[in-house]
Amino acid sequence: MTLSPTSRPQTSSPRAYQPLTREAMARRLALDIPDGSYVNLGIGMPVLVAAHLPDDREIVLHSENGILGMGPPPADDAINLDLINAGKQPVTLLTGGSYFHHADSFAMMRGGHLDICVMGGMQVAANGDLANWSLAKPGEAPAVGGAMDLAVGARSVFIMMEHNSKNGDPKIVERCTYPLTGAGVVDRIYTDLAVIDVTPEGLVVRDMIDGMTLSELQSRTGAPLHAR
Which of the listed residues 20, 51, 100, 197 has the most CB atoms within 10 Å of its CB? Predict the structure, then answer.
């Protein structure tokens, strides 16, 4: 089942539902990227969005290791290991695309030249705080990479993640308990259950999967939700 861009939150009794696959989440998010946008796709799940961009829109993809104008993933027989994204995955380059020093790439990120950044998330707070780089486990030394620069530099930040962790804990919470990537930076959250906007009035449910109800979604969320 897929999300309908025109669906509305319901408060009827719970029904059976099937969470979206990661590919379906990527397709849903891609629908919301406007024509003419410059977009960074973060490492992990967000890179799936590249394969689902609408054909009738010109969307320029950026990678922080120094690429502008990435195309969809290459076919197996067309992989060029000298052309990779920040996650070390092979990519393609569209006509007019370019690659350059990563210092120039970070200048684009920090200078507010990206319209949208799509990143994964470990936790998102009700006020838009983002934690997506460290679980803060003793003895670990994780690297944040360019996430902090993207979180504060992009004009809009979309988070793509499962609604709950593997053990069932909510990933949308009142307050993040993991180290923050950015404070108040998230604009919209895409999960396998819903699309949720972060607004000054709180978390507003924009879409839900077929069969999901607002009360069921609320039971799986660690912060208050509001119907649009």
Answer: 20
Q: What is the pLDDT of residues 34-66, one digit of tens each?
A: 999 999 999 899 999 999 999 999 999 999 999
Q: How many structural domains comprise the chain?
A: 1
Contacts of 139 (CB under 8 A, 6+ apart): none
* Segments forming the whole domain that contains residue 208: 22-64+102-227
Q: What is the pTM of this model?
A: 0.89
Whether 126 maps to a domain, the answer reads yes
Tell me, what amino acid is at 55? D
Over residues 176-213, the pLDDT tens digits come to: 999 999 999 999 999 999 999 999 999 999 999 999 99
Q: Which residues are catalytic?
A: 64
Tell me if 80 is assigned to some domain. Answer: no
Q: List the CATH number of the domain containing 109.
A: 3.40.1080.10
Has residue 13 been placed in a domain?
no
Task: Return the SS3 of 150.
Answer: helix
DSSP 48-104: GGGGG--TTS--EEEETTTEEEE-SPPPGGG--TTSB-TTS-B--EEEEEEE--HHH
